[in-house]
Amino acid sequence: MGAPQTRSGRRGRIGLLAAACVLLVVGGVLLATGVGRQQPAPPRVPQAQSSPGAGATSVPVPPRPSEAGGPESAPAPPAPAPERLVIPTLKVSTPLERLGLDGEQAMETPRDPDRAGWYERGAAPGARGPAVIAGHVTWNEEKAVFFDLARLRTGQRVEVERKDGSTAVFGVTKVAQYGKKEFPSLEVYGNTAGPELRLITCGGDFSKADHYYSDNVVVFGRLLSVREG
Amino acid sequence: MIAKRTARLTTLVALPAALALAGAMPAAAHTGSHSGSHQAAAENGSYQVDLEQLNGSGASGTAMLTLKGRDLNVKIEATGLVPGQPHAQHIHGSTDGHDFHCPDASADKNSDGVVSTAEGLPSYGDINISLTTKGDTTKKSGLDVTRMPVADKDGKVSYERVITVSQKVADHIKDLHVVQHGIDTNGNKKYDFNKGKSELDPKLPQEATAPASCGMLAGAAVGSMPVGGVETGSGGTQGVEAPGMLAGGAAAVLGAGALGALAVRRRRAADSLR
Question: Which residues of chain B neighbour A23 with C-beta distances below 8 Å?
Answer without folding.
Answer: 252-253, 255-256, 259
